[in-house]
Amino acid sequence: MVTHVGTGHGHSGAARRSSSTAISGWTAFAGTLMIFGGAMAILEGVSAIAKDNVFVATNDYTFAFNVTGWGWVHLILGIVIALAGIALFTGAFWARVVGVTLAGLGMIANFLWAPYYPFWAVALIAVNAFIIWALCTGSREARAR
């Protein structure tokens, strides 16, 4: 039987370091959702930039951009969200903070986008809410270890 003095549980220091950088299941879930949600936002943006005819015409909307303007907002935000989702797989704490922030921005953008394409906006609001929940739950799970 091999005993490691001073490690507490018989694990080497290298094993403890590698397990602390491993991501939790919730973080992996959030990263996957961010990549998926970012791709959906990219498609939403491309569709709006291409002046697709599937959007609802609104007359008196307070946050009125033209559809092309909203398309660029969603395209850029979608690219950044997808990249942040990829960064979550590194296990870096900053990626979690950026993920929560970008998911919040995604929720706001889709709330403001709702009159143009309500079903898509509500679906992406739900995806972003799950992202925030998963990132906040994952940090609690990592602290408990």
List the helices and strands and how they pair.
Layout: H1 13-20, H2 25-49, H3 67-88, H4 93-113, H5 118-144
Helix pairs in contact: 2-3, 2-5, 3-4, 4-5
Order of helices and strands: HHHHH
Number of strands: 0
**Distance between the terminal alpha carbons, to the nearest Å?**
26 Å
Overall pLDDT score: 79
**Count of helical stretches:** 5
Report the structural category.
mainly alpha
The parts where pLDDT drops under 50 for at least 5 residues are 1-20
Largest sheet: none
Supply the number of structural domains: 1
In terms of DSSP E residues, the strand content is under 5%
Shape: elongated
In percent, how helical is the residue content?
A: over 70%
Cα gyration radius (Å): 20 Å
Care to give the gist of this entry?
Helices cover 71% and strands 0% of the residues. The two termini are 26 Å apart.
Commentary on this structure:
- It is elongated and about 50 Å long.
- Helix content is 71%, strand content 0%.
- The chain has one domain.
- Helix 2 runs antiparallel to helix 3 and helix 4 packs antiparallel against helix 5.
- The protein is built from five helices and no strands.
